[in-house]
Amino acid sequence: MRAVVVTAALMVSGLGFVGYRTLEHKRFVQSLASEVKNTSLRVSNSAQYELEANSQITYAELFQKLEADVQEIDKNILQVQTISSPETAETTDPTLEYLRASQVCLRALVAKYRKKLALTTATTSAEEALKDYKEESASSSYLLDAARRRSDDAIRQIGVAATEYKDTLAGLVTAVEDLEHRRDAIASIYSDDALVSRAPLDAVAKRNRNELSDASSLENGPSKSPEPAASFAPGPTSKPTPTTDPQPAQIDELRKAMTVR
After folding, report:
1. Cα distance between residue 194 and residue 224, in whole Å
2. If phi over 0 gives left and psi between -120 and 50 gives alpha, with beta otherwise, what is residue 255?
3. Which end of the chain is more exposed for a tag (fewer CB within 10 A), N or C?
4. pTM, whole model, 2 decimals?
């Protein structure tokens, strides 16, 4: 009889300990949830610049916002690291991977838009070089040669800018796919509202795969323009001035015009 009582007491004690550990784990997860949700909101908000049509935010404003988000996620990472330990690694390790993947995704967005601005600038320079070349066509051979050199350089700059832009598109697709993987890894730990939704991530990845295909055509000299799509087109100044992104056919026509002497 005594053995039965002792066994029952041990079972109750064990269940109590398991219940206590479960409660402690729940509280620990809740203590991390604010950093996770804060990071997720920053990614979700930034993803909208990829998906919204006719955004009026400028490049300067966008870079400032994204870089500020990256710094804030640094603080979230440090906060999680501060309370992590070998005993909590099962929770904190995948959480940190998610936070870092979010940071990489935002940095990939910054890189994309910097190269997008560079491509727009290169295209504008090419248009100006072509205009100069046409104006100098009736001038002296010296002025014509100078205009030709400027146009040749403009063509090279477009090629460089297009290649670098294409590389950032591939980098962004990879970053988004990795973030989706990290998100799925902690989906059983945190509630859905603490994590970035899969829908905008899928949309951003799809959009940039399509842009990557267009950029490859742009780099190689496309034969026709892609169908126009709603896109983020921020102005390069401090004022919200929308710009027109260079299209593959536009650059192709510039190349043809500048190479037929």
Report:
1. 44
2. alpha
3. N
4. 0.74
